[in-house]
Amino acid sequence: MANYRRCYVPGGSYFFTVVTELRAPILANDAARDLLRSAIRACQQQWPFAVDALVLLPDHLHAIWTLPAGDADYSNRWGLIKKHFTQHWLAANGAELPITLSKQRQRRRGVWQRRFWEHAIRDERDYARHLDYLHYNPVKHGLVASVTDWPYSSFHRFVTEGLYPAQWGSDIANQFDTFDGGE
């Protein structure tokens, strides 16, 4: 395995891709979405951060966060969110994929992939590019024909705030083919 090094920028903004174990579509129901929302809020109470944008797909999510000044610890935040979600998901009889003995010894469960993909946002252009990618992702995966048709996205808030026109993304097919967002 490659010796991957994460980039930590105190007070920075980051783009994330977080995937369920073996891409199981566990985020495709209201109970899972409610539990994830609760896990994020619980984490924010302990370690504050802003969720600038978010899109939930059945088997993964993309998010852009901004951390407080002087703080770059997104890894522990994701760990807490995954742990909180997993505990409550399993307590509610949510599905869990079988795991290997090795994963059992590591005290892992069959809900989330172990790691996540992150990208430190470099500037406003990079931020806008990742924001567009995040919001266009349901169309990219063939879940809807138009960005506005996907309800589990911060896109609707951005439209309300006047940052995107309501029909944005309807005519930009294939624009993101060279940018994979960690998928």
Automatic annotation (TrEMBL):
**Domain annotation Transposase IS200-like: ranges:** 9-137
SMART domains listed in its UniProt record: Y1_Tnp (SM01321)
Gene3D superfamilies, from UniProt?
Transposase IS200-like
What the entry lists under InterPro entries is as follows:
RAYT_transposase, Transposase_17, Transposase_17_sf
MF terms from GO for this chain are: sequence-specific DNA binding; transposase activity
GO biological process: one example = DNA transposition
Tell me what this protein is called. Transposase
Source taxonomy: Bacteria, Pseudomonadati, Pseudomonadota, Gammaproteobacteria, Methylococcales
